Amino acid sequence: MEKLMNTQEIHLKSSDLGASVDETERLIKRHEAFEKLLSSQDEKVRSLQEQAERLKKEDVKKENAAHIQHKLKAVLERRSRIKELSARRREELSTARLFSVFNRDLAEAEGWISERMQKMQDDSKKDLSDLQVKMKLLQKHQAFEAEILAHEEIITSVLKTGEELVTLRHPKSSEVRRGARMLNDHWEALKRAVAARGKVLEDNRDFLEFLQKVDQVEAWIRQKEVMINVGDVGEDYEHGLQLLKKLNEFRGTGSGEVTVDDAHIKAINALAARLERQHKEEVTTVRQRRQQMNDRWSSFHGNLSRYRKKLEGALEVHALIRELEELRERSGEKSLLMQGLDYGQDVPSVENLIRRHEETEREIGIIQEKAAALEKEAKTKVKTQPVMAEKLNRKQKEMRDAWLKLEKEAKVRKEKLQASLQLQLFKADQRPLLDWVLKVTTQMGESGLPKNKAEAEQFIAEHQNTKAEIDARGDRFDSVKNLGQRLVRSGHYASSEIRQALSKLDEARTGLNRVWQDRSQKLDQALELQVFYGCVEQCESWLSNKEAFLANEDLGVSCLLLLLLLLLLLLHKMLVQSDLL
């Protein structure tokens, strides 16, 4: 531990603080590493203290214990002194770095001031009688003043660093004070020289501003003359708006966005009048440039106003054309929507399509009102803006064609929807009749034949009721048939389909009557058969009753003949009764 502290003391007693900023910063980094190493040895010192305390408790000899404590105390005191030396070394290095930075910045600032003073001396030797040279010097001095103003913060920082070194009682404080004082004197001298030079050139600022404004106006006039000569009014609204904006664009130096107009020219003339009073040596130049600008403006102003009005009028036409185009597109969209729709598959779907078409018709009505208003406005614009008449008429025709097409398609669709509704109503009436015919026909086909006279009479009565029901539906058949025939005569788009439906309905009705007739005939025959069966049964019963009488041999032939006649009479009577029934 003592060897280590010997090395550390030797390191800390070094007087080298660096001769430059870079050298001092390297020494600071080395010292920071040294302090980290010093801090890392605290653990070793604590271990040494613990070992000494342990030896004390182990009852070592008194003189040895005293020696250990003495050595420990010496180590701790020496280590404390090393830490103090380290802290002092750190402060010395920090101050040395500040001193190096001050010397570096002081030298740079003095060099910069010296260069600027030399430039000012060189510029002051130039002849100011030449107008171009004077303008360049004015512009250069304006930039020079801005540079001086921007550098003031650097000078202030250097002086502040010097004050800090003096406050820290740096060994070379007197040298620092002298350097800071000289820098401040040189800086103030530079500012006085700049102010003096500015005073000399100040009178020429207004003159330079006048020349700049005149040059800008003349350049603007030349640029706008090109636009006026071309006479472009734009391809569309956006292009026209861009041209109008470009016509009004003008950026004056230091004045932001302005517009060249009578007020702007008047302001330049006022500046020229002031220059004529204040700068006698520049009167000729000012008057010449002023007259030149006014002559250019006088000859140009009328053309500018006419072109601006022409451009503004064209912009209104472009806006109208854009509205016409939007209306044409809306009409085209409506046409496409209608082309993609069907005409319904039943009465509810057709009625829904009709309601939707009525909404479309209302929208078309709004389009029509807008189209009429645009047509009226277009007629006026054609007269006031003949240069745009051809394009406006073309767009107007495109819009009108699209509108007429939409109107025609809407009318055709409305008619077809009404025709579709009639078709679906016809089908809705026809379908139940066909179903009813099928039902009745099936019922008559599935009914069997009667098994006795009473059942035959009941079947005939029920069959007559069916006939009455068929006759009752005759008006309905006729109504549906008349509706279908009327649709065919009107040239309905589904005439072929309607004819097939009518034919099918007639066939069903005819077939129903035929089935009824066949069934009626079968029932009549069945009744006759049952009556015959009844007569036969009665005869068989009567003959059975007379068998005993016929068995008597004493009756003779005459008696047999009489019985046979009676049987025939009974049979005839039964048949007559059957016919009466």
From TrEMBL:
The keyword Coiled coil applies. Signal peptide: none annotated. CDD domains: SPEC. Residues 31-65, 350-409 form a coiled coil. One of its GO terms (molecular function) is actin binding. SUPFAM superfamilies: Spectrin repeat. Keywords: Actin-binding, Coiled coil, Repeat. Pfam families: Spectrin. This is SPTN5 protein.
